[in-house]
Specification:
The protein is mainly alpha-helical. It has a single domain, classed as Endonuclease III, domain 1, CATH 1.10.340. Helix content is about 65%, strand content about 0%. It has 4 helices and no strands. Helix 1 packs antiparallel against helix 4. The longest helix is centred in the last third of the chain and has 17 residues. It is globular and about 40 Å long. The model has no long low-confidence stretch (mean pLDDT about 90).
Length: about 90
C-alpha cells in the first residue's frame, strides 16, 4: 500500500475532522490512520464498491461508508464531497 497516499489521506481527514469535538474522546484515533488505510484499500479493490467510470462518485461513497461505519456517523454525500474530491486529486 502506498504510504505517501495514506499520509495525504490522513491529512485530508484531519483537516476535515468529521468527528469534530468527539475526536478527543476516541483514544485510538491515531490521526484517522485506520480509516485512511481502509479508504485506500477500497479504492484499490472492487470489494464492496464496484469500480465504475465515475471515480469521484465511487471515492465519495467509499469515504462516506468507511467513516459512517467506523464512527457510527450519518455523513451525507454532500458532507463528503470536498474531502473525497481532494482524495481523488491526490490519486490522479
Amino acid at each position: 500500500m502506498n504510504e505517501e497516499h495514506i499520509e495525504k489521506i490522513k491529512e485530508i481527514l484531519n483537516g476535515w475532522n468529521p468527528l469534530a469535538e468527539k475526536a478527543n474522546q476516541i483514544s485510538d484515533l491515531n490521526e484517522y490512520n485506520t480509516e485512511a488505510v481502509d479508504i485506500l484499500f477500497h479504492i484499490n479493490t472492487e470489494i464492496n464498491f464496484k469500480n465504475t467510470k465515475e471515480s469521484q462518485v465511487r471515492i465519495r461513497n467509499i469515504v462516506k461508508e468507511v467513516l459512517n461505519q467506523a464512527f457510527d456517523l450519518y455523513l451525507t454525500d454532500k458532507d463528503c464531497d470536498d474531502p473525497s474530491n481532494a482524495i481523488y486529486k491526490i490519486l490522479n
